[in-house]
Write a structure and sequence with these properties.
Strand content: under 5%
Mean pLDDT: 73
Distance between the termini: 39 Å
């Protein structure tokens, strides 16, 4: 199993952050997701 390097950790964190922002606020306003 490959070890996580800093780049992998960053992209995983960044993807999670984008998903959180989209679901929590921005996405609701832009796409009207209930």
């Amino acid at each position: 199993m490959p070890k996580f390097n800093k780049t992998t950790v960053f992209y995983v964190w960044f993807d999670a952050l984008i998903n959180y922002i989209t679901v929590s606020g921005f996405g609701n306003k832009k796409f009207n997701i209930n």
